[in-house]
Write a structure and sequence with these properties.
Elements: H1 2-13, H2 17-58, E1 60-63, H3 64-88, H4 102-130, H5 136-161, H6 165-171, H7 173-203, E2 204-207
Parallel strand pairs: 1-2
Helix pairs in contact: 1-2, 3-4, 3-5, 3-7, 4-5, 5-6, 5-7
Length: 209
């Protein structure tokens, strides 16, 4: 572009006064056009930089080793926690299908209790084993589920296994209903936690070391 003007402008100037005026106008117009183009270019660069920054903010860049480690931890903890929540959900029910024989009922009650206790212990060990390697907010969410499942075990003993369980249900009717309602609360919390973990893992972008 500069080469063209270097050739053309002297030719226009050779026409005299009018040519000089034309040359001045062309130069001014060229300067204005160049400045406008520069401003547009700078503006576009600024927009591109901002867009790039937003993309970076949406991604968390980690090494493949760290990603594999985190993924293994969350998979282990999720499996243990889901087993705990599932068995906890079988404990306290306002409506239950049980055999008429009281001895058979007792066997079922104890079976549920021991299975729920085992999954609780497994989930608790898994959580504490991985506690140093997960964010505090994630630890608190898993802990909240664990603690609610422990409450279910305690209430289950009160309302199903104690010798005076029938009296407990009558005298602590509201507590019994709250324990039954807690089952859904635990399930909902688990679903929220699993969704948050999915979102977190999707935002991770692995780079090669």
């Amino acid at each position: 572009m500069n080469d063209i003007w270097e050739i053309t402008l002297p030719m226009i100037a050779s026409f005299g006064g009018i040519g000089a005026i034309i040359v001045a106008i062309v130069k001014i117009s060229g300067d204005i056009l160049a400045k406008n183009l520069a401003k547009r270019y700078e503006h576009q660069l600024a927009l591109d930089r901002e867009q790039y920054k937003k993309q970076l903010e949406k991604k968390n860049y980690i090494s493949k080793v760290k990603f594999d480690s985190e993924f293994a931890i969350y998979r282990e903890m999720s499996e243990a926690t889901m087993n705990m929540v599932f068995k906890s959900g079988e404990l306290i029910k306002l409506i239950d299908q049980l055999p008429e024989d009281t001895n058979e009922q007792k066997k079922i009650f104890y079976k549920r209790f021991f299975e729920a206790t085992n999954t609780y212990n497994a989930a608790n060990r898994c959580l504490m084993r991985n506690a140093p390697f997960i964010p505090e907010n994630v630890f608190k969410q898993f802990s909240s589920l664990r603690d609610k499942c422990l409450l279910q075990l305690i209430d289950y003993k009160t309302f199903y296994l104690d010798s005076d369980w029938k009296e407990n249900r009558r005298e602590l009717r509201n507590e019994y209903r709250n324990a039954a309602n807690r089952t859904k609360i635990i399930s909902d919390e688990l679903n929220i936690l699993m969704e948050q973990l999915r979102i977190y893992l999707e935002k991770l972008d692995v780079f090669s070391e």
